Amino acid sequence: MQGKVRIGVMGAAGRMGQMLIRAVGEAEAATLTGVTERPGHAWIGRDLGEAMGGPARGVTVSDDPLEVFAGADAVIDFTTPQATLANAALAAQARCVHVIGTTGFTDKEIAALEPAQRHSVQVRAGNMSLGVNLLTLLTRKVAQALGEDFDIEIVEMHHRHKVDAPSGTALMLGEAAAAGRGVAFADVADRGRDGQTGARRRGDIGLAALRGGDVVGEHDVIFAADGERIVLRHLATDRMIFARGAVRAALWGQGRKPGAYDMIDVLGMRD
Ligand SMILES: NC(=O)C1=CN([C@@H]2O[C@H](COP(=O)(O)OP(=O)(O)OC[C@H]3O[C@@H](n4cnc5c(N)ncnc54)[C@H](OP(=O)(O)O)[C@@H]3O)[C@@H](O)[C@H]2O)C=CC1
Ligand SMILES: O=C(O)C1=N[C@H](C(=O)O)C[C@H](O)C1
Question: Where does NADP(+) bind (predicted)?
Answer without folding.
Answer: 38
